[in-house]
Specification:
4 strands; globular; alpha+beta; four-stranded mixed beta sheet
Length: about 140
C-alpha cells in the first residue's frame, strides 16, 4: 500500500482541523526555553513510562504536552498568563478539556526552569493515581 501522508485517528486529536495541525507544527519549532527543558525530561517515556506528544492538536486547541494513555495535558505558562483576560481564557479552556475527559496540569515557566525535579515528581504522582483499569487503551487495542 502506498504511503499518502499521515492519518490521525479522531480519538487522538478529537477532529482537530488541518490548520490546527499546521499551527502545532510551527509551534514545535518556536518552543520556549521551559518547554525545551521539560520536553527533554519527558520525551521517549522518560517520565513515569508515559508517552507524551508536544504541541499536540486537540479539537480547536494545541496542547503543550499530551499523554493520550491517561488523557493528561501539561501546560507550561509564562507571565502573560497572569493577565486577567488570559486567566479567564485558561479557565474556560481547562473546563472544555475536562468536559471531554482530558486532565490539565499547569506549571509556570519559572517552576520548570528552577525546579524541574519537583515538576517531574508532580507529573509522576498524578499519573500514579491511575490504575490500569482507568488507563485508556492504546491505539489498535480493544478492536
Amino acid at each position: 500500500m502506498a504511503y499518502l501522508g499521515k492519518t490521525y485517528p479522531s480519538t487522538l486529536h478529537h477532529n482537530a482541523s488541518a490548520s490546527t495541525h499546521n499551527l502545532a507544527k510551527c509551534l514545535r519549532k518556536t518552543e520556549t526555553e521551559a518547554e525545551k527543558i521539560l520536553w527533554q525530561k519527558i520525551r521517549n517515556r522518560k517520565c513515569g513510562g508515559l508517552k507524551f506528544r508536544r504541541q499536540h492538536p486537540f479539537q480547536k486547541f494545541i496542547l503543550d504536552f499530551y499523554c493520550h494513555e491517561i488523557g493528561l495535558t501539561i501546560e507550561v505558562d509564562g507571565g502573560i498568563h497572569d493577565n486577567p483576560d488570559v486567566l479567564e481564557h485558561d479557565s474556560n479552556r481547562t473546563f472544555e478539556l475536562e468536559n471531554v475527559g482530558v486532565k490539565v496540569l499547569r506549571f509556570r515557566n519559572q517552576d520548570v526552569l528552577e525546579n524541574i525535579d519537583e515538576v517531574l515528581k508532580c507529573i509522576i504522582d498524578f499519573a500514579e493515581t491511575y490504575n490500569t483499569s482507568s488507563l485508556r487503551p492504546s491505539e489498535g487495542e480493544g478492536s
